[in-house]
Amino acid sequence: MPDLFVHNIGLLATPLMADRQRTERFVLERRNAAILVREGRIVEIGPERELESRMPADCPRFNADGCLATPGLIDCHTHPVFTGNRADEFHMRNAGRSYQEIAVAGGGIQATARKVRAAAVDQIVKESLPRFDRSLAAGVTTIEAKSGYGLDWDGEAKLLRALELISLQTPQRMHKTFLIHAVPEAMEGQRERFLDEVAAEMIPRVAELKLASAADVFCEQGAFSVDESRRMLRAALDHGLQVAVHANQFGHSGGALLAAELGARSADHLEYLNDQEITALAKANVCAVMLPASVFFLGTLPYPPARKLIEQGARVAIATDMNPGSAMTESMPFCMTAAAIYAKMNPAELLWAVTLDAAAALRADSDVGSLEAGKAADICLWRAPDLNSLSYHLGDFRAFTVIIGGELAWEDRDATARY
Ligand code: NIG
Ligand code: FE
Asked: Atom 1, ligand 1: which residue's CA is nearest?
């Protein structure tokens, strides 16, 4: 791969690895910087004039046209492989029914699982792939993608295979996660048998076939208890998978404390979080993943206590939670806007939460998440004048250019300023 010289950057803004232990989030901002890329990685960032003087005349160049450059965004929690939609449930909720009531009545996760069960893998890929395209356009260069609507082995294996096929068709870096979301309808009344099957058969097979690098459990009243979640996640750890927990979304489910106990890579949701739980997450270095789009979309839950998490020294990431039930969006910029308004995060905290801390949530922070020598050359260019503007244009803020591993992955044909 030839070198690439990214020049004419208006402002470069990035978190730095060296600042990871700081409670206050610091962002390096540089004007007139240029980036030199070799073999898909950043080899140098420096003043454009100085780098320019050393550049061979035939070095391929990319003119950033005065844009704001940030690390590629990292969406560390999504459920993007499914068929059909649940727009009916969205409006039922707005008419007064709760997410849990709809689930108990046979909707929710089981409704999507029925559609997934009936669909061939090609159909699932066809319906899901555009979500990855939209995510890329929103600046996401690394995406975590969960299964979770297959429920039994055949269904889950089908979704993980669909993700494999999608990863061949998207330039995004993908981290696949096996999600244990609910007991399949066909096994109602056989809960213990299902848990045995997950721990003794499904998890070992996922690990052996390398279908995913992590496991996640929906630890919540109405889904899986703390003891059940612990059992499945311990099995995952025993088989070399990383673990994450859907925790404390509808109440103090015990999921956050379980994540701390197991040293999970992340605890996700955290709408209900007390001081003891915050301290436990910070102490165990479990990344707190906030999903503001799902709080917004469900309409009735509190936002996670981001300020307290940050003050107590926890890592805080923001992700879309892209899914048909509680967060029908691929837009990380929208999630940043919601976190700014409702969780009172400042622009520097927001940037950390969608780049380096999100990379930490995937244990990928030595590779991606900041613009520094040695890191993958995953770069987003935004038609925005400064960091404040990154969370300001509500709803449809797309990247101007997305570079992944030093290669052009996406360009906005419209390319007008979005601030
Ligand atoms: O993260 N909370 C559990 N899982 C998803 C929603 C799944 C669904 O409703 O389809 C979430 O919000
Ligand atoms: Fe989720």
From this structure: 321
